[in-house]
Structures are given as structure tokens and as C-alpha cells.
Q: What sequence folds into this?
């Protein structure tokens, strides 16, 4: 139900029993009930709920503030919050489990009030400006698991690191990174986290340009001692050797998704098994067989051009345990013959592949020459499955048979 067009009188006219029915209709999360695009609508709801003895507040489990605009260049601010009444309303929402705030401006005291939600599991802030951030913040909820801080602007004390450190048991973290400032950055020296399993870093133009910003990001990575998955998106500058003198990734990382340039900065990744390189094509300067830590990787996804044969050869030459390879050709061609020939040229070092999947930015022609399958099998004797676009073939006693869609799906 929309709250933006309802007047305070109308809120007052709704008996508590109707509120209960609205809550049941909205579902367990009550997403629509507690969605406010403006601070006025939240104040109206607070006044109305107070009129019925505050019995609605404990029913709210999901709170949405502000409005996520459909464009990436969203302009602040749609939801501006600066009244003490808001904290009064928030303090009464004792069962909130999820908070989503978009395109908003709030005071640090509002964020500190949300940190007191005893059952909070998810906090997502995007395109949010925070003024007068609270330095020493601790989230009361022992169930706090998911934190998202994207395009946050701090007016005054920069508190991104403070919020991350305050979430003691988080399992997933998604963030853009801004310069923390010397005072806040120093706190990483005494902080560690063993619960976070997945980190997504979203690079933005104009961020991570200073040596200090890059080093504080790497300091955070080192402190996530239980990290298993690292996803890197967007625009990142190149990190220098001076930035990466110490070990950057925790050695627990077993899955990486992102550009090869960021993977190159790390010294030792003994548990890394799955790699998805998001580069469009591979530059020969980005592959150094002597330093890149991918020897134990078993699954690789990569986007290449047909002309990247030499670079792919060098990359695969150090992947002695590679079992599954997915190659997407970025060339503007739909000829499977040409792409399969290029792929065969990339397998000179005969990695022990069991499956190869080939796709293209353009769909390939429907006819596939099985002579290419025999060539790939000679290069990779353990090869059992070949996929091209949405079709798959399996080798049995030297013969390649196309699989029906249902069977092919089971092999994925």
C-alpha cells in the first residue's frame, strides 16, 4: 500500500484491526507497509501508529526509506531526515530485520538508532549522505549478516570503516570504497573479522586514486580472515607494487570474480579454485606466469578475442589442475569453426580439462564441425563434455553425441 498520498487524518481513521489485516495481506516482511519515499510519509505513519497505541510498530520487519531511481546518475535527495521524531519512531520498531535506504540524507544519529535494532539481519544503504557520523558505533544484533554500503557520502567524519567494524558477525559485505582519513584508517590495525564469507568491491570513477585509499582497502581485505568469495566490479585503478608489499588477499579465498589486474596484486592464494575474469579480452601485459597465483584453479571463465591466443596459452600453461573452462569470444563473428580453431590454438599446453564451454557475443551458426571435437580431445585427453552456446555434446567411447536439453542441464 502506498503511504505517500495518505493524510494524517486518514491514518488516524484506520482502526488497529484493519492495520493487522493490512499486515497479513502485505506478507511476512511487510515491505509495502513500511516503505516511505519521503520523511513526511514516515512522520504521518508514526503519528497514526502512535494513535493506536503503537501496536503496529512491532509488526514491521522490513523498513524501506527513500526511493531507488532507475538511473545510475541518481541525484540526492528524495528522503531527507533531520527530525528527532524519526528516532522516536525507529526506537519503537523492535522487530525490524531488514533496512533498505536509497537516495536519502540522514544524520549519524539515525544510523546509530538503526544499529540498536536487536533483530537486524540486513542493512543496505545506497546513494545516501550521512552527516555527523557516530564514531564508536556497535550493532546490537547478533544476527547482523548482510551489509551494503554503495555510493555513501560522509559529511564530516568518514564512517564507512566504522560501520564495517561495528558489524561483528557479517557474512556478506558489498561496498564502494572512499578515503577513510588517517584517524579512522588506523583502527584496522587492531580489528579482524572471521565471519565474513563474501566481499563485493564496486569500483567507481574517482575513487582509489590515492595510495592511502588503495592501502586501506587492502588492509580491510587482509583483516577478513574467513573470506571465501571476492567479487570486484566497476572501475579500478592499477595497484602498484608499493601498494601490495604485504599479503593482500586472505589465504582462505577460493572464488574470485573480477579483472585480472586485481588478481595480479596478490602473493599467495593456496585455496583459490574458481576464477571468473571479467576483462573483455586479455592483454599480454596482464599475464605473468611467474607471479600470478592460479596454479590450483579448477574452474575458469574468461572473455577473449580470437587474437588472444598467445596470452591464453601463457595463462593456461600454469593451470595444471584446470578441469572446467568457459570461453566467451568477444569477436563480432558467429562462425563456430573460427572460434573452435582459435580455442584449439590456446590449448598447446594440454590442460587436464574435462569440460569446455564456448559462447560468443553473437550466437554461433547451428552447424558444428565435429572434427574440431576430435582435435580438442587429442589436446585434452580427459575431455568429456563440449558445450557451444546452449548445445552440449558428450564423449562416449570416442564418439561425440549431442545431449537433449534436459540431460545437458543436469551436467551443468
A:
Amino acid at each position: 500500500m502506498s503511504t505517500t498520498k495518505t493524510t494524517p487524518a486518514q491514518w488516524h481513521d484506520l482502526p488497529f484491526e484493519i492495520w493487522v489485516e493490512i499486515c497479513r495481506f502485505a506478507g511476512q516482511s511487510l515491505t509495502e507497509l513500511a516503505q516511505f519515499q519521503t520523511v513526511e510519509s514516515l512522520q504521518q505513519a508514526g503519528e497514526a501508529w502512535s494513535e493506536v497505541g503503537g501496536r503496529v510498530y512491532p509488526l514491521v520487519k522490513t523498513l524501506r526509506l527513500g526511493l531507488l531511481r532507475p538511473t545510475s546518475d541518481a541525484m540526492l535527495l528524495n528522503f531527507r531526515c533531520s527530525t528527532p521524531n524519526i528516532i522516536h519512531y525507529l526506537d519503537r520498531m523492535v522487530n525490524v530485520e531488514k533496512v533498505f535506504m536509497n537516495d536519502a540524507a540522514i544524520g549519524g544519529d539515525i544510523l546509530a538508532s538503526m544499529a540498536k535494532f536487536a533483530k537486524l539481519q540486513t542493512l543496505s544503504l545506497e546513494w545516501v549522505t550521512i552527516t555527523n557520523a557516530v564514531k564508536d558505533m556497535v550493532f546490537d544484533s547478533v544476527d547482523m549478516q548482510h551489509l551494503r554500503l554503495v555510493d555513501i557520502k560522509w559529511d564530516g567524519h568518514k564512517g564507512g570503516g566504522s560501520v564495517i567494524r561495528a558489524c561483528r558477525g557479517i557474512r556478506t559485505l558489498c561496498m564502494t570504497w572512499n578515503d577513510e582519513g588517517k584517524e579512522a584508517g588506523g583502527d584496522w590495525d587492531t580489528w579482524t573479522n572471521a565471519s565474513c564469507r563474501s566481499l563485493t568491491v564496486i569500483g567507481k570513477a574517482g575513487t582509489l586514486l590515492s595510495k592511502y585509499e588503495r592501502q586501506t582497502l587492502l588492509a580491510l581485505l587482509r583483516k577478513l580472515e574467513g573470506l571465501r568469495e571476492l567479487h570486484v566490479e566497476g572501475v579500478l585503478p592499477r595497484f602498484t607494487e608499493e601498494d601490495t608489499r604485504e599479503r593482500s588477499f586472505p589465504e582462505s579465498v577460493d572464488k574470485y570474480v573480477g579483472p585480472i589486474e586485481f588478481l595480479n596484486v596478490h602473493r599467495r592464494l593456496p585455496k583459490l579454485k574458481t576464477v571468473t575474469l571479467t576483462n573483455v579480452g586479455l592483454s599480454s601485459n596482464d599475464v605473468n606466469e611467474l607471479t600470478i597465483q592460479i596454479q590450483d584453479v579448477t574452474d575458469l571463465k574468461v572473455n577473449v578475442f580470437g587474437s588472444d591466443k598467445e596470452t591464453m596459452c601463457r595463462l593456461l600453461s600454469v593451470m595444471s589442475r584446470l578441469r572446467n573452462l568457459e570461453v566467451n569470444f568477444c569477436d563480432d563473428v558467429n562462425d563456430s569453426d573460427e572460434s573452435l580453431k582459435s580455442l584449439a590454438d590456446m590449448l598447446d599446453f594440454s590442460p587436464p580439462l574435462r569440460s569446455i564451454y564456448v559462447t560468443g557475443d553473437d550466437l554461433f551458426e547451428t552447424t558444428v564441425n565435429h572434427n574440431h571435437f576430435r582435435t580438442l580431445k587429442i589436446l585434452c585427453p580427459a575431455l568429456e563434455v563440449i558445450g557451444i552456446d546452449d548445445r552440449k555434446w558428450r564423449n562416449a567411447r570416442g564418439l561425440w553425441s549431442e545431449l537433449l536439453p534436459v540431460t545437458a542441464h543436469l551436467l551443468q
About this structure: Confidence is low (pLDDT under 50) at residues 1-12, 27-32, 70-77. The first strand starts at residue 35 and ends at 36. The CA atoms of residues 12 and 51 lie 7 Å apart.
